[in-house]
Structures are given as C-alpha cells and as structure tokens.
Design goal:
Strand order of the largest sheet of chain A: 3-2-1-5-8
CATH superfamily of the largest domain in chain A: Cupredoxins -  blue copper proteins
Largest sheet of chain B: none
CATH superfamily of chain B: Cytochrome c oxidase-like, subunit I domain
Helix content of chain B: 55-70%
Number of domains of chain B: 1
Low-confidence stretches of chain B: none
Oligomer: heterodimer
Strand content of chain B: under 5%
Radius of gyration of chain B: 23 Å
Largest interface: A-B, 88 and 89 residues
Number of helices of chain A: 4
Number of strands of chain B: 0
CATH architecture of the largest domain in chain A: Sandwich
Shape of chain B: globular
CATH class of the largest domain in chain A: Mainly Beta
CATH architecture of chain B: Up-down Bundle
CATH class of chain B: Mainly Alpha
Number of strands of chain A: 21
Number of domains of chain A: 3
Mean pLDDT of chain B: 94
Number of helices of chain B: 17
CATH topology of the largest domain in chain A: Immunoglobulin-like
Shape of chain A: elongated
Order of helices and strands of chain A: HHHEEEEEEEEEEHEEEEEEEEEEE
CATH topology of chain B: Cytochrome C Oxidase, Chain A
Helix content of chain A: 25-40%
Structural class of chain B: mainly alpha
Chain lengths: 350, 545
C-alpha cells in the first residue's frame, strides 16, 4: 500500500507536468490587434479554469485505478453505501463555480471585442464562391480575387481602425484571419459588421472558414498591414488601375456572353445606342446562379438594367431597353467586381 | 438459485433458408436489436473507410489523392453516416435488445413497428450511399447541409434528403416505441425509481428524438420543395431566410448531440457500478442530471451560431455553461462509485474508464467554445473537429465498445477473448489520441475544418501526418476487434447467465435468453434485483450451513 501511494504520487506528478507542458506549449496565434490580445488572454484564463477540472477527474480516476483495484484472492465485498443528497448537491455546486468564473471572464472579453472601434477606414467585404472582394468605400475602388486564378490582396494602414460590413450574395461564407483570432459569417440577406485596429505590420493569410462548396479550400485572401505612407501610395495605384478604361468595337444590336468558372468570357461588350438590344447569357456553372446588371460606373450610383438570376447550366436571352451613348459598367451582382466588365454604347464602327 | 441457471432447450437444427427467413420476418426485440447492431457496424466500416481516405488525403499538402469535389463528398457522407447510420442506431440497437430485458418485459410495446423502424434504417442508408452512384456524386454540403449551398446540389443532394427522411421516420417510430415500452411494460416491482439508468437514458434519448427530430424533418421537406416545387423557404434572393434554416436546424442539431451521447452515459452508469462492486453513488442525482440535460438541451442551439450575428450570444453562452453542470454531476457520480470499490479490469470496465478519461477532454474543450469571444477564434477550425470526436468517439464509441464486451456474452452465449480485447483497447486509446489531440493545435494554428487540401507552406503538415497515423492505428484496432468477434463466434456457447456478477434483470435469464426472455422473473425490490438475488443465495447458504 505504501509503495503504491508513493508511485501514485510520482505518477500524478508526471501526469501534471505532462499535461501542463502539452496544453501551454504556445499553440495559439500571436495577436495583431488589441481585441485579438483580449481573446488571447481569455484562452489562457479558460485554460487555468479548465485545468483543475481536468486534474480532479484524471487524478481521481488514477487514484481509483491504483488504490481501489480488485486484488487477487480478495473475496470481501466493498462498501455498499450510496451517496447522500448533500454530497450529490456538492457535485452540482463545484461545476457551477467554474462556469460562473468562465462566464464572468468570457462576457467581459466579449463586451470588449464587440465594442466598436473609433471611426476609421470603411470596407465593404463580399464573400462569393470562391473568392473575396473588398470595396474601399472611402476611396471608391474595389480589390477582388478571381476564382482559382488569384486571391484578393487587401492592404490596411497600421493603427487605424477598420470598420467592415460583411456581405454575401450566394451562400454562407466566413471571414477569418487567424492572427486576428476572429471570424464572422457573411450571410446572404443579413449583412454583419465588425471593427478592429491592426497594430502589427505584416502580411497575413485569411480564409473562408465556413464550408461553401467546391473550391472552399481555395477561398483565401491576403491582408497586408502597412505603414500609412505605403497605404496612401497603394490606394493611389489601385484607383488608377480601376479608372483605366477598356474599349471594344460596337458590333450591332445583339451581344452574347458566357459565364464559366465564375468568370465572364468577355471583359467588354459593344452595342448600338438608342435602340433596344438582344443580350444572350449562357451560364455554364452547374448549380451556381449569376445575373447581369448594368450600371453607370464601378461605383454603381445608378442601375440601368438587371436580369433575374440564371442558375447554370442554362442559356437565356433578354431584350435590354435602349441606352444613351456612353461607357457603362456591368457585373454579376452575386460575384461583384470579380465578374464585371465595360459596356460601350455608341455607333457601329466601320 | 434456479432462475440464473435456466437453459434454452436445444431445438432441432432447422434448414438455413428457414433461419434466414426467421431473421427477415422477426418481431423479436432481441433479433431486431442484433440486426440494428450488425447494420450499424457495417455502416461504421463504410464511414470509417471514408475517414481513412480523408486522412490519407490530408497526409500531405495539396490534392494528391482526391479532387476537392470528391473530398467534399467524403466528409459530408462520413459525418452523415456516422451520426445518423452508426452512432444513434448502435445505441438504439443495444436499447432494443436490453431495455425490455432490463425492465422485465417480454418484448417491445409494438413489435411490428419495431421491425418496421429497423428495416427503414438500411433502406435509408442505401438511399444515402446511392449518391455515390449518380451523376454529380453524393451530397457535398456537409452533414449540416446549410442553405443556400445545399440548394445548389445535384441528384446526390436529393438522395441525401430522401435518405434522411426515411431514417428520420425510423428514429421517430423507434423512439415512440421505447417511450411506450418503458412507461407501460415494466415488470411488477420495477418502479421508475428502480429502473436501470440505461433505461432512463434510453427514455431520455427517445424524448429528445420525439421533440427535436420534427424540426429537422420539416427542414428536409421544405428543402425538397425549394429544390423541386419552386418554393422559396430558404432562398434569400427570393425572400427566403437563411436564418430560419440555421435556427431550426440547430434546434434539432443540438439536442441531437445528446441523442448521440445520453444512452452512452446510461451504459457507463451500468458498467462502472458492476465492475466496482458498488451501487451507483447517486442514482437520484444521475436521473436528475439526465432530466436537466434534456430540458436545457433545447435552449443551447444558438452556440452553434455565435459567429453568425443572428442570435444573442450572451443568452446562449449562459444556457450552454449551465448544461455543463449536470454533465459534471455524471462524472462525479461515476468517480464516487469507483471510490472505495474493488475495480475489476475486465474489458467492459477498461473501455468505460477510457470513456471517462476521453469524454472529460471533450467536455473541457467545450468550455472554450462556449465562450463566444473565444469561439470567434476557433469556431469552424480543427479545434471543433477535435472536440466533436472527443465527445462522439472518445465518448460514445468507447461506451459502445464497453457495451459490446459487456453484453456480447448475453447476446451470443459466448465470451469475447480477453487478450484481444486488451489489445483492441490500448490500440484504440492510443490511436484515438494520436489522431485527434493534434487537431486542437491545428485549429488554434488556423486550419479551418472541411478543407479538401492545405498549402505546403501553412506549417500544418507534421501535425496532419501525426493525426493520420493515429487514424490508421484506430483502423488496426477495429480489425483486432473484428478478429475477436469472428474467432469468438466459432467457439461453443459456454457463457454463464451472469458472467460479470451483474445487477440488472438481463443477467437473471440464460445467455442468450429464450425467445420469451424469462422463464422465471425474479422479484424486484431495488434497482439491483440480480444483486439482491445473489445476496439472498449467499444468506441461504450460510443459514443452511
């Protein structure tokens, strides 16, 4: 018995050291915002609350296994006593204390994380199958990824609060940057908002965390936190790119366009002015919906025309009312700038 | 004591075709119970094979084995089969066989309905699996089948919906049958306060099924209508609501978690006292805990939606933390039962100890996830994958194995081999932890769940290799168990009526029991009638001497 209790103590000690080493071996992300820092701290607070629970259960289990094992030749019967109500009441009270503490710390952190940051950059981020786009609302340009071709790259100035409105027009997605220790769903029909202030320079990989279909595992993006100067020059560059015009010849009063792999096969369409024209859309994406909308410009101040959604595979023809001569912008409203182009309305060339 | 020595009179061997027809047309709860178990273990092999394929895909970065389209079907069907075709039916199988025996009944209340609910199960399962044979493959929207993604699916998605509709009818009929059986068919003296905890747990599970499942069934019907009849319940582009689906799905989905574990708690509450040689420490406390879990389980669904911005996170964190209290009470009761006992390390007890050690880790993981701010960092990562496997594998599968070793002699008249059982236990315990513990780290390191591939520079390769090797070890352990089963079934029927010095009525009849269950039903004066019988026999002997 003596021997057993000594080796039991050693066993318990080894188990304790092992589990502390295992659990606290620096596994959680290094936070890059004050809110992430709070969540990071909460992880360790819960660890310290959970550890006693773990030790009590595993400790008693080990003691039972060693001390209360049946020994060969022992035919006596163990005590046949059941617990009294007082002890059983204690079983309820123990866990209640742990959860009350967990609740207190958890709610305090939650309040901090949900508290809006001071005003700063406004971003409208849209998840779509299977990329991201971000409208820099204050600057009037959009960065976007192209499905299976390139990921969205968004830059943010360090130490400036970012306010995000999160949207989706197809299925549920989830904006997730591990180093922010944060994720939030982009839900069709229900915009979500959140804010954070990145306080560390660097390049961070983000992802869609909510399973969203075929290429979910490719739905990544890059978040670069840069100096304010670098950000200003990046904004200037992106604005220039987005305002550079594409042109194409006006061919008549009928155009065709195809959608496949979440892309249009044409970046520019030309049609005759002041005359209704025929628009034929073929959607080759099985099970995926697209539509076709015509706007004044990528800023989408005015919408001239929009088709209903067409779920692929399908081919449909629409008659678009007459438009005045000029340069227009078109996109699929579900996939946004990732599926957009220029519509030239004018006189037939040649 | 005569009642424990009863033997089935040896019947003349009958032709094979006749015996097969007997099984196909039987309404005997014991045969149906065995068919439930055989069916579930067969699907377990399918679901397990899918897991092995997934782990092989994740063994290396990038899609070296499967395309994302294939992988997405695999994880969807793995989850669906394990939850609906394996874990719940396994527990229902044990329930079918042992609830009538434990309460001293002749059969289930509605034997024909019982046969129907069994036969619907393989039918539904085959419809699910048929997805792999149709154009576009099996359903690939995850077992949660979120809209609008699920509305995009092809024929496989329809088969998924139809298959689960059939399985749902099976579960519902089974649950009603259990409730009526337990409430109406208890033997004289078997008051509810003397009912074995496994029966309480099966009653609880059945109540959960009856209350929660209709929500899921309604969702399936609305989704089929959306897909084929032009309705727009869930299509936000046409006025439908994604939020409605999420809320009603998880209103079913969280009680479902308890549907998958409560009977396992019942099994552990049977095995721990028997092999500790003590009564259950707090019978009333355990029953109260089960009832509290049932009540609270309908108020926690929002914790699956902390990151959606659609629910009041603070409310759902309070209810979620509260439901951990009755669960904690169960642990303390099992530990207090062992404390001061004389523990016999027979195979069922080893698996029960494994259950306690592993399930507590799953429970502790839950403390992180129940805290919304913390959940923002780990929701939809591998941390969750780890958590649910510590609960459903470390929990329920360990309990199912414990039940298998515990009740196999009763069902077949044969004792499973002990040495192979120990090999099975240790391989499964080690394999399980090597497979699933590293997933905590992967989740904290930012690896989302349900990704078909990961880049080589993500830094997740080593832990994934570790996890996959653990998964293979689990597969090996299952082969050992299968070998044990095959070897044992070729041995003669030598198991005594009561090989473990059990407490409950199933040990008062022969192994296997006669078709009518009991030749003589012993009197029931406590929650341990067979223990009382043994004591009375000892006293008689002493008095006689």
């Amino acid at each position: 018995m003596r021997l057993w209790s000594r080796s039991l103590k050693q066993l318990l000690l080894v188990a304790l050291v092992l589990c502390v080493a295992l659990v606290s071996s620096g596994c959680i992300q290094n936070p890059i915002s004050a809110k992430a820092q709070d969540i990071h701290r909460l992880f360790y607070i819960i660890l310290w609350l959970a550890l006693p629970v773990f030790l009590v259960v595993w400790g008693s289990l080990l003691i039972c296994v060693v001390r209360f094992r049946h020994r060969r030749g022992d035919t006596s019967e163990p005590r046949q006593t059941a617990g009294n109500n007082g002890t059983i009441a204690l079983f309820f009270i123990g866990p209640l204390i742990i959860i009350t503490l967990s609740l207190l710390f958890g709610e305090t952190t939650l309040a901090k994380v949900e508290h809006p940051d001071p005003p700063g950059e406004h971003l409208r981020i849209t998840g779509f199958q299977w990329e991201w786009s971000a409208d820099y609302v204050d600057h009037g340009f959009t960065v976007t990824g192209v499905t299976n071709k390139k990921s969205m790259v968004m830059e943010l100035p360090v130490d400036k609060p970012v306010h995000v409105t999160l949207l989706s027009h197809d299925v549920i997605h989830e904006f997730y940057v591990p180093q922010l220790l944060f994720m939030k769903n982009a839900i069709p029909g229900h915009p979500n908002t959140f804010s954070f202030t990145p306080d560390k320079l660097g390049t961070f990989r983000g992802r869609c965390a909510q399973y969203c279909g075929l290429w979910h595992s490719h739905m990544t993006f890059v978040m670069k936190v840069v100096t304010p100067e670098a950000f200003a020059s990046w904004v200037k560059h992106e604005k220039k790119v987005s305002s550079s015009a594409t042109t194409c010849p006006v061919t008549g009063s009928s155009v065709e366009i195809e959608a496949q792999h979440i892309q249009w096969n044409k970046a520019c369409l030309g049609v005759v002015a002041n005359k209704p024209f025929k628009l034929q859309i073929e959607n080759k994406d099985v099970g995926i919906a697209h539509n076709f909308a015509i706007y004044d410009s990528p800023k989408r101040k005015h919408q001239y025309y929009v088709t209903p959604t067409i779920t692929g595979p399908a081919k449909k023809t629409f008659i678009v009312p007459a438009l005045k001569p000029g340069t227009y912008y078109f996109q699929c409203n579900i996939h946004g700038p990732a599926m957009s182009g220029t519509l030239i309305v004018g006189q037939p060339s040649g | 004591m005569a009642t424990t020595e009863v033997r089935v009179p040896a019947a003349a061997p009958r032709p094979r075709a006749q015996r097969i027809l007997d099984w196909l047309t039987t309404t005997d709860h014991k045969k149906i119970g065995i068919m439930y178990l055989v069916n579930s273990f067969t699907f377990f092999a399918f679901g397990g094979a899918m897991a092995m394929l997934m782990r092989t895909q994740l063994l290396q970065p990038n899609d070296h084995l499967f395309t994302p389209a294939e992988y997405n079907q695999l994880f969807t069907m793995h989850g669906t089969i394990m939850i609906f075709m394996v874990i719940f039916p396994l527990l229902a199988g044990f329930g079918n066989y042992f609830v009538p025996l434990q309460i001293g009944a002749l059969d289930m209340a509605f034997p024909r309905v019982n046969a129907l609910s069994f036969w619907l199960l393989p039918a539904g399962g085959l419809v699910l699996l048929a997805g792999f044979a149709v154009k576009g493959g099996a359903a690939a929207a995850g077992w949660t089948n979120y809209v609008p993604l699920a509305l995009q699916g092809e024929a496989g998605e329809d088969l998924w919906l139809l298959g689960l509709l059939i399985v749902g009818v099976s579960s519902l009929l089974g649950a009603i049958n259990f409730i009526v059986t337990i409430l109406r068919l208890r033997a004289p003296g078997m008051s509810v306060r003397r009912m074995p905890i496994f029966c309480w747990a099966t009653l609880g599970t059945s109540l959960l099924v009856v209350l929660a499942l209709p929500s899921f069934t309604a969702n399936i019907v609305m989704m089929l209508a959306d897909r084929h009849l032009g309705t727009t319940f869930f299509d936000p582009a046409q006025g439908g609501s994604v939020a409605n689906y999420l809320n009603t799905f998880w209103f079913f989905g969280h009680p479902e978690v308890y549907i998958l574990i409560m009977a396992a708690w019942g099994i552990i509450s049977e095995i721990v006292p028997v092999f500790s040689g003590r009564p259950l420490f707090g019978y009333n406390g355990v029953v109260l805990a089960l009832m509290l879990v049932i009540a609270l389980s309908f108020s926690v669904w929002g914790h699956h939606m902390f990151t959606t911005g659609l629910v009041d996170n603070s409310f759902f964190t309070v209810t979620t933390e509260l439901i951990s209290v009755p669960t904690g009470v169960l642990f303390f009761n099992w530990l207090a039962t062992m404390w001061g006992g004389k523990i016999r390390f027979e195979p069922p007890m080893l698996f029960a100890l494994g259950f306690i050690a592993m399930f507590v880790i799953g429970g502790i993981d839950g403390v992180w996830m129940a805290s919304p701010a913390m959940d923002y960092a780990i929701h939809d990562t591998y941390f969750v994958v780890s958590h649910i496997h510590y609960v459903l594998f470390g929990g329920t599968v360990f309990a199912v194995m414990a039940a298998m070793y515990y009740w196999f002699p009763k069902m077949t008249g044969r004792m499973l081999d002990r040495k192979l059982a120990y090999v099975h236990f240790w391989l499964m315990l080690i394999g399980f932890n090597v497979a699933f513990f590293p997933m905590h780290y992967l989740g904290l390191d930012g690896m989302p769940r349900r990704i078909a591939e990961y880049p080589a520079n993500a830094g997740w390769t080593m832990l994934n290799i570790l996890s996959s090797s653990g998964a293979y070890l689990i597969a090996v352990s299952m082969l050992v168990a299968l070998a044990n089963l095959v070897i044992t079934l070729r041995r003669p029927r030598t198991a005594p009526a009561d090989p473990w010095e059990g407490y409950t009525l199933e040990w008062a009849t022969s192994s296997p029991p006669p078709p009518h269950n009991f030749d003589v039903l012993p009197p029931v004066h406590s929650e341990r009638p067979v223990y009382d019988l043994r004591r009375a026999a000892v006293t008689e002997e002493v008095a006689g001497a």
